[in-house]
Recover the amino acids of this structure.
């Protein structure tokens, strides 16, 4: 590699782009970071991996001047640097791309880029200079964005590029990305990684925070693993493997593959015929037919927004539809719906967006556990709710599903994503439904919790129940499902066994059948 | 209706629009920065009182204007402290300021001047009514009077419209101000202080409210009277929504409300018998016109108005 010699020369002057020594930070009684030491070599992509709540984001917020560390020192380019605020971080050449973008939605790309980095009190000159700089940056790093586009009209992937351009425009040499792929499609994520490699090859240092092992393995040079506020180790990516990293992250052996026996399908539980859903005058589901038998998991693969959500909502009694839904041999109503009748028919639904459809974030865990099942006689006491029984039941569910912290009175919003999902999954699975609808079961969920939720889904199948799994994670679909249906543009493109290779499924997901492909 | 009457109505429209325009632009600065200000009314009222009182005591219009702006600044500082520093509820803070101003002006007025809450009528302390006409020595020209026959503050208000546009869209301060009302986190991560920007906006709001108030008590009238702003702070908020938080449409909206005001002053009862319709529209109806228009605007009949996205939300730093 030609840059190697170059790197060697720089190494004598400034061995590391960033060095953190003994960083500690507590929020009240919670020790978010404990004596963290990390050294990031110049011109590398450095991964920081850990479960939600391991302290990754806190550490990076300290580096970007959002929080002040209780103890420890920060060295930038070998020089001890105080970073009391974001301005200092920017001056030190550190740029940050947050998980939730910090863009002004109704500003143009150019306006967003100069915000806070204007040349003077008048905008005209700043905008002109930014326009020229942006053209250069776009060429140099394959970061193509229309400078006059309004941000809210851009795709998420392009908005992220604006964030990267913002950092580069501020002359950042060190770019921190916090969970950058959480909101991206697989194609957008691939493009992002190409951009990051390009930045590295130009001598920039990239710090990539993620909890996805695959991204770490694919893109990073080194990886540091955090667990419960401490740094458990830094390894060269080439010298490790996903199993080892997962074990370091969770602190115990983790099964990355789902362990399950072959399915033993029984009678037909659900039959869907020519199901169609219209939303706002657009047909989103265009005549879908399939069936699910007892004791099998049917996975729906597809890029987000191809009708999977509408399918779940029609089956779950949220969206009106036409066609037929036959559950245990009985036609279910398709209009004038309520979720209650679906529950009575034996359908449980873990919705795709748990924070919107699955939980009321401001309500306590025990109240959330009661939702949908509040008329259950065991939660009743004469005319009144038996809140004590509901709370006790919540405690039992929390214990069985290892929800942390196991406090039924805590509001849903105060649990981590994985624990929120466990609350929803516990509520629905413990009903022992004939059919479980489950959308994006592990979106934003920790690796340890993923393993647990997957086990529960398989256990339900093995108990002779039917499961309809919708996920945009192809790995998840392939490892959990017994049969895979691929959806594109509101239609089912075909059925494949789960062993089918990723490329073939990918083509179907893009709408290409054998004949066209 | 003859030409003179039309000219008089138009002239009256400009005069009645001026306090609305000041207040509307005041609201614009605050809300564009993400601080909702229900307290425009209270600040105008306090400024009207402080201005007229100071002018009456000192005999100086300039002292009155400064006192008015000062009073509005004090109330704005309270609102800023409550909603920016202490992240309180902006609506409640604004409404509280209205109650506070409404009560305090009457109590202080009664205690200081003993005229049932009024301030003494101004003579030399009043704002000059027709400085331009006096300067050029123009007399008896209704058309020139329409354009030149107003007090200085009328022209200040009109000039504030293009100035505000320029400030918002052509300067660094304006860019940051608009950004902080849309997404304060973007401003914060760019290394700019959210609180400083919002305090600056709230300060500008106070100055404009102060001018609105002193124009009412020292320009349109010769003294402060209890509750003399009569809901204009709220009408200004309606005009702001009507104008979709943009300065030039704000001028149009305020002129419309001012025109309705002028109509209701000019015509107590409108007799339609003259044009062949046997109906007399009562004065109460014309008086109610601005409020009817407000209801129509707020009910969303004039297109969708999208407020600044961070409006009303105190900024809390998060990970």
């Amino acid at each position: 590699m030609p840059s190697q010699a170059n790197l060697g020369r720089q190494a004598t002057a400034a061995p590391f782009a960033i060095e953190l020594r003994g960083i500690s930070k507590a929020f009240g009684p919670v020790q978010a970071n404990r004596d963290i030491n990390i050294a990031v070599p110049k011109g590398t992509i450095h991964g920081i991996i850990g479960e939600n709540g391991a302290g990754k984001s806190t550490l990076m917020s300290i580096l970007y001047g959002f929080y002040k560390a209780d103890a420890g020192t920060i060295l930038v380019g070998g020089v001890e640097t105080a970073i009391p605020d974001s301005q200092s971080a920017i001056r030190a050449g550190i740029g940050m791309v947050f998980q939730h973008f910090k863009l002004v939605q109704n500003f143009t790309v150019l306006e967003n880029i100069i915000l806070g980095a204007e040349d003077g009190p008048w905008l005209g000159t700043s905008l002109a200079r930014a326009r020229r700089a942006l053209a250069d940056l776009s060429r140099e790093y394959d970061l193509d964005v229309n400078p006059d586009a309004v941000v809210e009209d851009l795709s998420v992937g392009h908005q992220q590029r604006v964030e990267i351009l913002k950092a580069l425009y501020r002359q950042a040499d060190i770019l921190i990305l916090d969970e950058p792929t959480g909101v991206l499609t697989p194609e957008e994520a691939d493009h992002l990684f190409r951009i990051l490699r390009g930045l590295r090859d130009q001598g920039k240092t990239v710090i990539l925070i993620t909890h996805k092992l695959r991204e770490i393995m694919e893109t990073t040079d080194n990886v540091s693993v955090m667990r419960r506020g401490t740094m458990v180790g830094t390894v060269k990516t080439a010298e490790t493997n996903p199993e080892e990293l997962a074990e370091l992250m969770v602190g115990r052996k983790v099964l990355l593959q789902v362990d399950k026996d072959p399915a033993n399908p029984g009678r037909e539980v659900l039959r869907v015929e020519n199901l169609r859903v219209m939303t706002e005058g657009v047909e989103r589901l265009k005549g879908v037919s399939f069936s699910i038998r007892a004791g099998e998991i049917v996975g729906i693969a597809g890029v987000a927004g191809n009708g999977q959500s509408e399918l779940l909502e029609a089956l779950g009694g949220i969206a009106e539809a036409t066609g037929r839904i036959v559950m245990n041999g009985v036609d279910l109503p398709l209009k004038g719906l309520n979720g209650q009748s679906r529950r009575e028919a034996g359908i449980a639904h873990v919705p795709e967006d748990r924070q919107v459809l699955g939980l009321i974030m401001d309500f306590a865990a025990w109240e959330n556990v009661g939702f949908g099942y509040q008329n259950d006689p065991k939660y009743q006491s004469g005319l009144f709710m038996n809140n004590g029984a509901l709370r006790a039941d919540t405690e039992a569910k929390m214990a069985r599903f290892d929800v942390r912290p196991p406090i039924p009175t805590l509001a849903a919003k105060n649990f981590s994503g994985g624990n929120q999902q466990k609350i929803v999954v516990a509520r629905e699975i413990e009903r022992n439904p004939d059919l479980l609808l489950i959308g994006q079961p592990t979106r934003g969920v920790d690796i340890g919790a993923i393993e647990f939720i997957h086990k529960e889904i398989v256990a339900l199948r093995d108990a002779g129940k039917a499961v309809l799994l919708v996920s945009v994670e192809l790995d998840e679909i392939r490892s959990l499902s017994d049969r895979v249906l691929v959806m594109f543009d509101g239609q089912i493109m075909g059925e494949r066994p789960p062993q089918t290779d990723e490329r073939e499924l990918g083509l179907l997901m893009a709408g290409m059948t054998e004949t066209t492909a | 209706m003859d030409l003179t009457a039309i000219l008089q109505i138009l002239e009256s429209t400009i005069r009645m629009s001026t306090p609305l325009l000041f207040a509307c632009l005041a609201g614009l600065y605050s809300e564009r920065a993400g601080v909702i200000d229900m307290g425009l009314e209270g600040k105008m009222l306090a400024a009207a009182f402080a201005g007229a009182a100071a002018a009456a005591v000192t005999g100086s219009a300039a002292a009155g204007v400064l006192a008015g702006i000062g009073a509005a600044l004090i109330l704005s500082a309270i609102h800023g402290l409550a909603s920016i520093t202490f992240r309180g509820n902006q609506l409640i803070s604004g409404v509280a300021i209205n109650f506070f101003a409404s009560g305090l002006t009457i109590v202080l007025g009664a205690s200081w001047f003993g005229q049932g809450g009024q301030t003494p009528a101004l003579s030399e302390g009043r704002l000059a009514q027709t400085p331009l006409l006096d300067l050029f020595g123009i007399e008896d020209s209704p058309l020139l009077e329409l354009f030149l026959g107003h007090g200085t503050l009328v022209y200040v208000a009109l000039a504030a419209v293009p100035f505000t546009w320029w400030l918002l869209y052509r300067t660094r301060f304006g860019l940051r101000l608009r950004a902080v009302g849309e997404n304060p986190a973007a401003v914060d991560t760019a290394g700019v202080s959210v609180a400083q920007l919002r305090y600056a906006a709230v300060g500008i709001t106070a100055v404009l409210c102060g001018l609105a108030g002193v124009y009412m008590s020292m320009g349109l009238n010769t003294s402060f009277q209890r509750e003399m702003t009569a809901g204009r702070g709220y009408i200004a908020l309606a005009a702001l929504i009507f104008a979709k938080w943009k300065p030039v449409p704000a001028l149009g909206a305020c002129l419309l409300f001012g025109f309705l005001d002028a109509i209701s002053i000019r015509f107590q009862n409108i007799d339609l018998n003259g044009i062949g319709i046997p109906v007399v529209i009562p004065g109460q109806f014309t008086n109610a016109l601005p409020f009817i228009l407000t209801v129509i605007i707020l009910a969303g009949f004039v297109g969708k108005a999208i407020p600044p996205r961070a409006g009303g939300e105190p900024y809390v730093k998060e990970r």
